[in-house]
Design brief:
Distance between the termini of chain B: 28 Å
Structural class of chain B: mainly alpha
CATH topology of the largest domain in chain B: MetI-like fold
CATH class of the largest domain in chain B: Mainly Alpha
Number of helices of chain A: 9
Number of helices of chain B: 11
Oligomer: heterodimer
Order of helices and strands of chain A: HEEEHEEEHHHEHEHEEHHEEEEEEEEE
Largest interface: A-B, 29 and 20 residues
Order of helices and strands of chain B: HHHHHHHHHHH
Strand order of the largest sheet of chain A: 6-7-8-3-9-10
Radius of gyration of chain A: 24 Å
Largest sheet of chain B: none
Shape of chain B: globular
CATH superfamily of the largest domain in chain B: MetI-like
Radius of gyration of chain B: 22 Å
Chain lengths: 382, 264
């Protein structure tokens, strides 16, 4: 059976204003977590603003899930405090924190019908029957699952189960919604749809603060207002999503958040002008890109995203490098080229190719705009 | 498939039929035939009769059935509660402590049941805990012998239970008791039913410890069977054995249906 999407009209129908504005800020104040001598989360200081979606991404073992579990109350910090709104929740048990949580495997209670799953939190908190009935109806409508209230979880698809899990978390009007890799168990097509639907849900419920843990950069880029990239138990970088993507502060961020070509260059001129463009030398070529506080002579990396490289130059694409064509991979919507530029492999994602592509092994110019380029220092941890 | 060829599979089936027939079916068939035998001097009984069943029914058979059922039910219920409690408690302990206590729980099942009975007799024959000669000592003996299996079954169920269920329940505001009653125990139900069934079956067949501690007036089925065969009344013993098997089977089938309903 097809499932209606989370639509704006669903939300309007169910008086979503009751859900709006429910969010609180979350503040990590030097929170660390250790298992014996093994530190899994080094002192973390971070703020999530009310109504903000913060995505924590990073490889396995980077500490992102530990940070979420510390907010939920399932791991006790070795040091530091966690505040949700004005409440210091560090020493509160999970059931007194006022959160909603959605996990990777949905964790719907298999012995309860959909409506009982959604009502669970309210019943546990002793809410009255009329309120429970109203909230269950509203929450299921919000995720487009009103017609499934009498079903058992085993009678639903993975995507439907995840919607019910979200409805269950929303029904308690959480101060913060914790999403722990919520889409990892879904197949690619459903995952793409669900990402769009969660984005829509947040547009409809703008007051809801969300901490979203994922290892999938696409989910993070699509959904998050801000991203914290975790590495080895530390925040490697943190900032607004577009800013982190366009001007990654270090190599790890550049490579983890989307694909990046990182060319080793020597700074020729420090950042100047209204756009803060610096100039850097790569062999004989002088290239312009957004700089930070580099000084002439500094060795750094020039970051260019594969889709920003053009095979043809014009008045905007003023940066020019020349590489040797090594590989061509056609993938339907995109064609990926791999070139060798001064010993560094450079990837190009092109939507359209010139009529005649040079032979493999031939020299080939690539063009890009200074605005799409930034200088990235080599790895800086923490 | 481990064995691919048709002849190989036939051979495996034949070996299975031989082992199953000789070791499992033949003794039961012999007991069944004995319980119905009029006289048995040759290869097969010379005639069949229900006389042994009517004899044991007129004797103390029903009292023994009742004693066994009550003992089995109470000891299994007690083992279920304490085994579940222990499994839940050990889950949140330090891994080493949990492992050590888990092993300690299984010690009574590694000791001969006669020794368990002897130990209880010695321990509870003097005040302040004078249980010798009471029904309670039979319950205690059965409880000691079966609780390890209950604990093992429930622990296995808990190990398979994703912590996500309980954590999500907590995050939604469920306090520990509410969570236990509405989430953990319902999810464990199939394991609880299986644990109860196994405990009950073990209790119904328990002889070694019971024969050491049973008081007059609380003779369980295995003790009755032992007494009858010891006196040479093999046919009546066989009839009681069939009654024991039937009573246990009926209860286990009922529990299996209940477990099936829980997992559906």
């Amino acid at each position: 059976m097809s499932v209606p999407a989370f639509t704006g009209s669903n939300v309007m129908d169910v008086d979503a204003a009751k859900i709006r504005g429910a969010g609180s800020n979350v503040h990590f104040d030097k929170v660390s977590v250790a298992y014996g001598a093994h530190v899994v989360l080094h002192p973390l200081t971070l703020d999530i603003a009310p109504g903000e979606i913060l995505a924590m991404i990073g490889p396995s073992g980077s500490g992102k899930t530990t940070a979420l579990r510390a907010v939920a109350g399932f791991v006790r910090p070795a040091s530091g405090r966690i505040r949700i709104g004005a409440t210091d929740v560090t020493d509160l048990p999970p059931y007194e924190r006022g959160l909603g949580m959605v996990v990777q495997n949905y964790a719907l209670f298999p012995h309860m019908r959909v409506e009982d799953n959604v009502a669970f939190g309210l019943r546990a908190q002793g809410a009255d029957k009329a309120l429970i009935g109203e909230r269950v109806k509203d929450s299921l409508a919000t995720v487009g699952m009103s017609g499934f209230s009498k079903r058992y979880p085993r009678e639903l698809s993975g995507g439907q189960q995840q919607r019910v899990a979200i409805a269950r978390a929303l029904a308690v009007r959480p101060r913060v919604l914790l999403l722990d890799e919520p889409l990892s168990a879904l197949d690619a097509q459903i995952r793409r749809n669900m990402v769009e639907e969660i984005a829509k849900l947040h547009r409809d419920l703008p007051g809801l603060t969300i901490l979203y843990v994922t290892h999938d950069q696409t989910e993070a880029l699509t959904l998050a207002d801000k991203i914290a990239i975790m590495r080895d138990g530390r925040v490697s970088s943190h900032g607004p999503t577009t800013e982190l993507y366009r001007r990654p502060p270090n190599r790890f961020t550049a490579e983890f958040l989307g694909r990046a070509n990182l060319l080793p260059v020597t700074v020729a001129e420090g950042a100047a002008g209204p756009k803060g463009l610096a100039k850097a030398k790569l062999g004989d070529a002088v290239l312009a890109g957004a700089g930070r506080s580099e000084k002439p002579g500094d060795r750094t990396l020039l970051c260019i995203r594969p889709q920003h490289l053009s095979l043809t130059g014009d008045e905007e694409h003023t940066n020019r490098i020349v590489g040797t064509l090594k590989e061509v991979h056609w993938q339907g919507e995109l064609t990926h080229l791999v070139l060798d530029v001064d010993g560094t492999p450079v990837r190009v994602s092109a939507t359209r190719l010139p009529v005649s592509l040079p032979e493999r092994g031939s020299a080939m110019p690539l063009f890009f705009t200074p605005g799409d380029t930034s200088l990235v220092p080599e790895d800086v941890r923490g | 498939m481990l064995v691919w060829s048709r002849s190989g599979r036939m051979l495996i089936w034949a070996a299975f039929a031989l082992v199953f027939g000789v070791l499992f079916l033949a003794p039961l068939a012999v007991i069944l035939l004995s319980s119905l035998a009029d006289q048995w001097n040759g290869v097969l009984p010379s005639g069949l009769t229900f006389e042994h069943y009517t004899d044991v029914a007129q004797g103390a058979a029903w009292k023994a059935v009742k004693a066994s059922l009550i003992t089995g039910f109470l000891a299994s219920a007690l083992a279920l509660v304490s085994g579940t409690w222990a499994a839940l408690a050990l889950r949140i302990q330090d891994a080493t402590l949990a492992r050590v206590l888990g092993v300690l729980f299984f010690i009574p099942s590694a000791v001969p049941s006669v020794s368990v009975g002897l130990g209880l007799l010695v321990a509870f024959s003097h005040p302040p805990l004078l249980l010798n000669g009471t029904i309670a000592i039979v319950m205690v003996a059965h409880f000691v012998l079966i609780s390890a299996f209950t604990f093992g079954n429930v622990s296995a169920g808990l190990a398979r239970l994703s912590p996500d269920f309980e954590q999500v329940a907590s995050s939604l505001g469920a306090r520990p008791a509410y969570r236990l009653w509405h989430v953990t125990l319902p999810l464990l139900a199939p394991y609880l039913v299986a644990a109860f069934g196994l405990s009950f079956a073990l209790s119904m067949g328990e002889l070694g410890a019971t024969v050491m501690v049973y008081p007059p007036g609380w003779v369980t089925l295995p003790v009755s069977i032992f007494s009858l065969t010891d006196r040479g009344d093999v046919f009546a013993g066989a009839a009681l054995t069939i009654i024991l098997v039937a009573a246990t089977l009926v209860l286990l089938l009922g529990l299996e249906r209940l477990a099936g309903r829980q997992t559906r």
